[in-house]
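Notes from hallway chat w/ T.B., transcribed later so I don't forget. T.B. wanted the structure written out for a chain they're using in a teaching module, and asked if we could keep both sequence and structure tokens in one place. Agreed to drop them here.
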Amino acid sequence: MPRSLVLPLALLPVVLLACPAGGGEDELGSESGSDADASSGPTSDATDTGDATDQADQADQADQADQADQADQADQADASSTDTNTTDPDTSTDTTTDPGACELADIIDQALWDAMFLHEDDPACSGSNYTLQGLLDAAADYPTFACEGDDATRRRELAAFLAQISHETTGGWPAAPDGPYAWGLCFIEEVGCANNACPGYCDAGNAQYPCAPGKTYHGRGAIQLSWNYNYGQAGDALGVDLLSDPDLVKNDSKLAIQTALWFWMTEQAPKPSAHDVMVGTWQPSAQDEALGRLPGFGMTTNIINGGLECAQPGNIKVEDRVGFFERYTGMLATDMGENVYCDMMTPY
């Protein structure tokens, strides 16, 4: 990914790449938001990562329950995961995997995928374009994803990635059937924005990635990619003209996940990549340690949306992310590791 891109000032809409330290929010996508009643049907929290002033209210329906309700539902999610045919954690090996000989399909198959995402095809959702084959195709371009370290590390990284994109696209609510953490990958695009109904995501002053006539750049895909400059950067990295056809992110099952995987695997200085954090490649500096930034799932939340969620004990959105992570680590027969929360981490 080019390192010479000129980043907008903190007062402009935030971009996918991190701003310099202290430069404002670090959000990467958009809030999908739903007008549905959070107590009665699917709502979207995807993504909590758009412009903080314009979008922070759009996805709150899925986050209205208090922390106690979320904790209760986590038990439901755990129960649903135990109904699947998962491997006993004690059977996973500790041998280090050679990325050259690694296959993501070795640790996730169609049966497990279907058990994780019980409601992606629900009539109230729009997640049918999220497929296991789309994940495998996307990961083929990033051969080190979930393919570094021992078996437990590989499985933990996959669980972390799936947990984060599940939160970004969730349709769950506290009393949802099968628990709120069975409703990941529910929404393929920002709710209410179909047919280019959300024109407010164009930074007309961005000369490098100008908006195409008649196109809008609202949240799409597993990371809810938004804004023209984010579509432009992702398209450059993936070799696809997403500025001219942003709907590819929701219509192409590979791109729907690959845009999220691109973000996951890409360092955004001064932030490390989420991949490096989860596999142990990133070593925090003395300053990072002093600011509570330590390797683990919590650090990936800090990378994705630390400006709005971290350094806040009890943040309900962090609880939702961790709820998905707990469910998926159980289903993938691994553990959550250390530093699962970011409540003691200073955002960038």
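Follow-up for T.B.: Residues 1-27, 30-40, 45-94 have pLDDT under 50 and may be disordered. Might be a good example for the class.
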